[in-house]
């Protein structure tokens, strides 16, 4: 059982589970291909040198390219893959990180306003940044590069309204 299933309350149902838009994963893949190609070319030309110190130059190139590969490709890819945006019928959950994890949960009953921003580029590719303001001490949660942000906002409002109706019905039954 993985995230978010291991975090759900009894009877809680996941309505949306996504991560930031796929464009966040494109950059790390491109960097990976570029550094692999440049590294292979550099090592190929360096091995043609007939000097005794050439092996040290090859070793230095490999180390430099591995560091750049990890820094600009592997770490951003892992960060993208380990970021989760989850909306259930009871709350909103956001989690990121693999080693050091950060997580926030906001009950739907505490959602005050939901807004999003999109520039032209984001509208073309169907993503945007969403701000969810809550009536809690945590204030607001900012979700970056949410896919189909307009549909996600509509879903969130519908779930919040359903939650309010359910709570009003529960309190009327208990009175």
From TrEMBL:
The chain crosses the membrane at residues 29-47, 53-75. The keyword rRNA processing does not apply. Pfam families: bPH_2. It comes from the Bacteria. InterPro entries: YdbS-like_PH. The keyword Cytoplasm does not apply. Residues 80-154 form the YdbS-like PH domain. Keywords: Membrane, Transmembrane, Transmembrane helix. This is PH domain-containing protein. It comes from Glycomyces harbinensis.
